[in-house]
Design goal:
Elements (H helix, E strand, L loop, with lengths): L1 E4 L2 H9 L8 E3 L9 E2 L1 H4 L9 H7 L4 E3 L3 H16 L5 E5 L2 E4 L5 H4 L2 H16 L3 E5 L3 H8 L7 E3 L5 H6 L11 H9 L13 H8 L1 H10 L15 E12 L2 H22 L3 E10 L4 E12 L2 H14 L6 E9 L15 H19 L15
Parallel strand pairs: 2-4, 7-8
Antiparallel strand pairs: 1-6, 1-7, 2-3, 5-6, 9-12, 10-11, 10-12
Helix pairs in contact: 4-6, 10-11, 12-13
Bound molecules: magnesium ion (MG).
C-alpha cells in the first residue's frame, strides 16, 4: 500500500483555517523561494510545487500565499504515520506526507484491502480532516503509481492479474524516475507506454541508461522486488565511493567530497535532522584506512557547511599514497524541530538554505545530476 496525502501543506493550512477552504492556497512564502505546495484550487491556474513563487504570483494573483509552517506539518504527519503503524508493523515513511505499508497477509486481521483502506482514510479524515490517495499493488513501484492514479481522495487497487493490462496503457512518464529528459529520449525511440519498453532488448536499456536502464526494463514488466523498510532513527548518515583508479588528484577528491556532501546533506534534510559531527574516511591504495572527524559548534544541515568541514579534514591529512576510497558522513544527529533561522541567520546562510531547498526539490522530481554545482561541471 502506498499512501500519499493530497496537496499536503496547503491542505493543512486549509483545515487549520476554514476561511481558506475552496480558495487557491499556495505555501512557499518568500518572494524569491519556490512553491512547496498548492491547493487544488491553485493548481487550476497552473501553479505547481517547485515553481518559483514570483511565477505563481503571475499565474494566480488572487492566490493566498502562506509561509511554510514545517513544525505544524510534521505534527500532522506524525498522526497520519501513527494510523498507518496501527495496521502494519512494516511502514516505510518516504517523505513527510507519503509512506508505504506492507499489508500482505493482513486479510484475516483486517479483512479485504478495500475495506482496510476505507477505514484508514476515515481515520485520517476524522483525526486531521485531510484526504489522502492510496494505491494497492503487488509491489512498491506499482503501488506508488496507483496512488497517483485518482487524486485527490483516490483509491486504486491493482491486482496481480491486472498489472500487464495496466502497464500496456501507462504513459512512460508516470514511471518514477522518468523525467523530462529521459522521457524525451524514450519518445524518440517510439516508447509512449511502459509496455513499449519491452519492444527493445534489456541490453539496449542498460547501454543507454546503465543500472537505471536495467531497473526500467524490469519495471516495464511490473517487476520490483524492493521491500518495505520500516524506518528507524539512524545514528549516522554517510556516502562513500571507490574510484575506478586510485588517485592523488586533489581536484578529483574534492569533487567527490562535494558530491557526497550533497547526498548526505540531502538525506539529513529529508529526515528533518541536524548533525554536529563531520566524518571523513579515506582508504589508501595499500588498503590502510584513515578516519578523521570534526565536531562543529552548531548543528547544521547545509551541504555547504558539511562540504567545507570535509574539505578542511582532507586538507589536514598528509596523503602518502594514492586514494582508493573516499567517504563522507555525519553523526551526532538530533531531530529537534526544523529551525527556520529567520531573524538570526546571516544572509549567506539564508541563501545557502534556499539553494539547498531548491536543489532538494529538483532532485526529488528528477533524476540525479539534473542540476549540479559549478564545481562539478566537468563531471557531467
Ligand atoms: Mg502528497
Amino acid at each position: 500500500m502506498h499512501l500519499d496525502m493530497d496537496a499536503f501543506y496547503a491542505a493543512v493550512e486549509q483545515s487549520d483555517n476554514p476561511e481558506l477552504g475552496g480558495k487557491p492556497v499556495i505555501v512557499g512564502g518568500a518572494m524569491r523561494g519556490v512553491v512547496c505546495a498548492a491547493s487544488y484550487e491553485a493548481r487550476r491556474y497552473g501553479v505547481h510545487s517547485a515553481m518559483p513563487v514570483f511565477q505563481a504570483r503571475k499565474l494566480c494573483p488572487q492566490g493566498i500565499f502562506l509561509p511554510v509552517r514545517m513544525n505544524r506539518y510534521k505534527e500532522v504527519s506524525r498522526v497520519v504515520m501513527e494510523i498507518l503503524r496501527g495496521i502494519s508493523p512494516l511502514v516505510e515513511q518516504v517523505s513527510i506526507d507519503e509512506a508505504f505499508a506492507d499489508i500482505s497477509g493482513t486479510e484475516r486481521l483486517h479483512g479485504p484491502c478495500y475495506a482496510l483502506v476505507h477505514r484508514v482514510k476515515a481515520a485520517i479524515r476524522e483525526t486531521t480532516s485531510l484526504t489522502c490517495s492510496v494505491g494497492i499493488a503487488p509491489n512498491k513501484f506499482l503501488a506508488k503509481i496507483a496512488s497517483d492514479f485518482k487524486k485527490p481522495d483516490g483509491l486504486t487497487i491493482l491486482g496481480e492479474e491486472q498489472v500487464k493490462e495496466f502497464l500496456k496503457l501507462l504513459p512512460v512518464g508516470k514511471i518514477p524516475g522518468v523525467g523530462k529528459k529521459s522521457g524525451e529520449e524514450l519518445r524518440k525511440l517510439g516508447v509512449i507506454f511502459a509496455s513499449d519498453i519491452l519492444k527493445f532488448p534489456a541490453q539496449l536499456w542498460e547501454n543507454k541508461f546503465g543500472k537505471w536502464g536495467v531497473a526500467l526494463y524490469a519495471k516495464a514488466q511490473g517487476i520490483d522486488n524492493s521491500a518495505v523498510e520500516p524506518y528507524s532513527d539512524p545514528k549516522s548518515i554517510s556516502a562513500e565511493h571507490t574510484f575506478d583508479k586510485d588517485t592523488d588528484n586533489i581536484a578529483e577528491l574534492e569533487k567527490m567530497l562535494m558530491l557526497q556532501a550533497e547526498e548526505v546533506g540531502r538525506e539529513i534534510r529529508k529526515l528533518g535532522f541536524k548533525a554536529r559531527t563531520v566524518n571523513l574516511k579515506i582508504k589508501l591504495s595499500d588498503f590502510k584506512t584513515i578516519t578523521r572527524s570534526r565536531t562543529l559548534p552548531e548543528p547544521f544541515a547545509a551541504t555547504d557547511v558539511l562540504f567545507n568541514a570535509g574539505l578542511k579534514l582532507l586538507a589536514d591529512l598528509k596523503l602518502t599514497r594514492k586514494v582508493r576510497l573516499i567517504g563522507t558522513g555525519v553523526s551526532n544527529l538530533s531531530s529537534g524541530p526544523c529551525q527556520m533561522t529567520i531573524g538570526s541567520s546571516s544572509e549567506k546562510s539564508d541563501r545557502q538554505e534556499r539553494l539547498d531547498r531548491a536543489l532538494d526539490q529538483i532532485h526529488s522530481r528528477f533524476r540525479d545530476n539534473m542540476v549540479v554545482r559549478g564545481r562539478m561541471i566537468d563531471e557531467v
